[in-house]
Amino acid sequence: MKHHASSALLSAFQALRISPAAALRPSLAPASSRLVPRPSSFTVAPHVRLFSATATHAGSWLEPRLNRKKKMMKGRPRVPTGGSTKGTTVVWGDYGLRMWDHHRRISAAQLKLAEDTIKKRLRGEKYRLYKRVACNVGVFVSGNEMRMGKGKGAFDHWATRVAVNQIVFEIKGNLHEQVVRDAFRLAGIKLPGQYEFVKKGEPPVVGITKLEGGITLEDLKRPRKRLPDVDTAATESSASAPPPS
């Protein structure tokens, strides 16, 4: 009896099989097959990087991302008197605000105040405001009651150099002309200098001379105009004079 029990237990033990672990869990797919295929429409030029580790240097039009530790010269606006009309006409908008009295340096706080004035006057209207100037000049101030010397001073604010007859603001939209005139009038009060209202298509300006009334750019580029001879002018005047009575 004991022999049959031991033989049955031995046969049952021999019948046991330990299955491998790979059979209990399906094998993972290779790494190459798990990658998501890129769509055929997604094409990248060979010279374009998908990312950049370099910080951008572009800031807003009132405060650029420039180094404030680097000192800047005060400088003067470059008045285009050599035949250039750049920046004196309306390009993108329908109306513009142009400074016409004298070149100067305008601070970012003054430009921001003028922009807020225009937006406050045109609240609720559909328009787009273009800024033709950008504050890229750092102004450094030594402070009050300080002795001469000891360096240039610390950074104070950003500013821009505006030449004479340069467009500062442009506006485009479904607006009445008188409404835009009033908005630009209020903005000109906030800014230093004297400003005028211009429309798109008005003649450009070279320095302080408008190219209108027969004046062309070629005439301004000439060094001098040829004057008639004195003898010829005197002869013509005497010939055209009436005879004495």
UniProtKB/TrEMBL annotation:
Residues 1-23 form the signal peptide. PROSITE patterns: RIBOSOMAL_L16_2. The keyword Ubl conjugation does not apply. Keywords: Ribonucleoprotein, Ribosomal protein, Signal. Residues 67-77 have a biased composition (Basic residues). GO terms for biological process: mitochondrial translation. GO terms for cellular component: mitochondrial large ribosomal subunit. Residues 232-245 have a biased composition (Low complexity). Pfam families: Ribosomal_L16. InterPro entries: Ribosomal_uL16 (IPR047873), Ribosomal_uL16_bact-type (IPR000114), Ribosomal_uL16_CS (IPR020798), Ribosomal_uL16_dom (IPR016180), Ribosomal_uL16_sf (IPR036920). Belongs to the universal ribosomal protein uL16 family. This is Mitochondrial 54S ribosomal protein YmL47.
